[in-house]
Amino acid sequence: MIWRKFSSSCYRLILKYSQNPLLQGLTDYWQNRSFQFKLSILLILSAALPTILATQGIIIVARNELEESETKSLHKGLADFQYHIQQVKNDYQVNAQALQQRLEQAEIDTTNPDALVQKKELLENIINNPIDSKYQPSFYLFTDNEGRTIAHNIRAISNFNDDLVNLKNKPVTTIYRYITVPTGINTADIKIVNHALRQQRSLSGIEILPRQFLEKIGLDIQANIGYRRQPINNLTISQQPFPIGTYDTDNARIGLSILAAQPITINGRVVGTVVVGTLLNRNYQLVDQITKVSGVTTATLFAYDWRVSTNVPNNDGKTRAIGTRVARKVAEAVLERKQTFMGQVNIVGKSYRAAYAPIYSHYDQINNTQAKPIGIYYVGNPETKVQQTLNSLALTGYSIGGGFILLAIIIAIPGANAFSRSITELTKFAQSIGRGELHVRLQISKRRDEIGILEKELNYMAQQISINIQTMTANELKIRASAQELQDALKELKIAQTQLVQNAKMSGLENLVAGIAHEINNPVSFIYGNISCTEEYIQDLIYLIKLYQSNYPNPPEQINGALKEVDLEFLQQDIPKLLNSMTNGVQRIRRIVESLRTFSRMDEAEYKLVNLHNNIDCILALINYKLQSKLNFPGIKIIKKYEHIPEIKCYVGQLNQVFMNLFNNAIDAIEEAFEKNIITTNPEILIKTKVVQHDKRDYIQITIADNGIGIADDIQQSIFDPFFTTKPVGKGTGMGLAISYQIVTEKHHGSLKCISTPGKGAEFIIQIPV
Prior knowledge:
Elements: H1 2-18, H2 21-31, H3 35-105, H4 113-118, H5 120-128, E1 139-144, E2 149-157, E3 176-179, H6 191-199, E4 203-209, H7 211-217, H8 220-223, E5 255-266, E6 269-279, H9 285-294, E7 298-303, E8 306-310, H10 328-336, E9 341-347, E10 350-360, H11 363-366, E11 373-382, H12 383-434, H13 450-551, H14 557-566, H15 568-599, E12 607-610, H16 612-622, H17 624-627, E13 637-642, E14 648-651, H18 652-675, E15 684-694, E16 697-706, H19 736-747, E17 751-757, E18 761-769
Parallel strand pairs: 13-15
Antiparallel strand pairs: 1-2, 1-6, 2-3, 4-5, 5-6, 7-8, 7-11, 9-10, 10-11, 12-14, 15-16, 16-18, 17-18
Helix pairs in contact: 3-9, 3-12, 12-13, 13-15, 15-16, 16-18, 18-19
């Protein structure tokens, strides 16, 4: 029953994953590999898989050991940091007690002003010559029983800067300068001093010093670090710091200090305190010492969530990241929940493995259940250091595993080759036959097993395939030849049919044009011939009228009225202009008629000598109406650059047809460019003629260029093909350029080519041998 359920589950699992496209693709790939390849892979995997699994297991165990060692190192670094701070506090407390004993032995009553004046020199000698301390304090304060200073020795760091140094080769040397401030500074607001006076006990601890007190003792400049910029882009909310103002740092101007307060007692009466301390803001001696002795890479002291002393490098790698703030998740754990935090954090854009612990003030000695953290200890190592160790470990493990796998490959490949040699030979033979190498034959071995039988059968099969393919190839060649002949005949038939239709159209058009030209020419000739006579007659009549006016200056009233009505003076001036205008119009009609006569000879079969300039001008005269300006179109300017060319023998009518096709195409291209706003001004067609020479033979070259829409690169090779057109249905047949090409190349043994840039126009170049 159990075996049946297991089998059913396996079958469903195989059925499910067999439909996966990726698995199907891998299956197809495996099936398409050679037998030798598959056998090699199986042999290699049989050795490699156990090696890989063993290597990976060793690496995982070593990684866990390394991470555990890293955690222990951070715990030790944090404990060393706290121990070192405690040693400094103890040292300051001993120092304060020594000063208190010297004051009590000198019986200096701080509450008696006269006694203070008398023993001022002794008081200053005591405060300026304290006992040596391993970690030198930055200030000594003597106060009276109300907490007001009566003497002090205050030093501030004069060489503080945020530059990092090589801690092993160049330890930080702190240089101090003495501060001069008046006495009478009230220290009772400093809680540790207040508690020492009230409870008459010696206290030490890490304390927050307010800005106002720092200003009074002259340490405000050293303490005023401010908030520094730190990158928070791409960080989660928990990795970002709390908003500024969450903790009361007085806009980043408070001080974090180590203090010891010792009451001064004379005759059983508290008369003041001795205060020994140092300001930790920008005082890097302590954090640099921790990294040197504990083995951690970086250390930091925080006032609340604000870095006041650190050797964590900024993102420039050169300066310390003071003035930046801790991540929200760390502040919540350490400052809010009073817990130690251990884990990965982002500090000014870099990842660290770090440990954090809360810093408590002296109040922890008075009531440790109510004490709240005032800062944070930090030690940490950059992730890059941990990752380098892990990478080195992985490289070593994988190198050893790779050596075993390489050895397996060296053994597996020759072994698989020996097993699969026969199958490989058969496969190569089948591939050769598949590529059409029908002359290849297998070398028949003496084997009598299935492989030997297969060799003989494959050789016979290859011979039969060769015979069949030769027969099929011959038949295919015959069919292809017949199909090509049919295709060529069909193409020629279509061209001939289109040419016949075109010729029929042009023939009818020529007859119509010739008839119209003849009918117009007769009355125009009559009008043109009589205009000069009419002009002479009118001049005679005008002369006669002037003669009458000179001999009869006072005609009857009726004649005067008639002269005014017809405005005789205006008629005398306007009639010559009218006759001149009629003459110009009739001359233009005669030129059009001449162009129509020239055009009507398009089908003229005579191969005769002509001047191509005259033919081009006649075609331009006929299409002049297309060149004129109209609504939303400024008209097309014709630019002629005629050089001297000789007369040429040609089929006049056919060349006229070529010019007509090219001019019409140029006009259509310019109009399309205007419709698509490719050009908006100065449409023009340039016509150039000149004599060129090729292979020691003269040719007349006619260039017709426009600045229209141009021809796309991908269709320029097809524009002379029959029935190819880019114009809309009904506007072009696709035969204009094909027929023009045939006329120039076949009828006149010349050339017609096109040069075009899309959007800038097209240029057609005709060359006809002289």
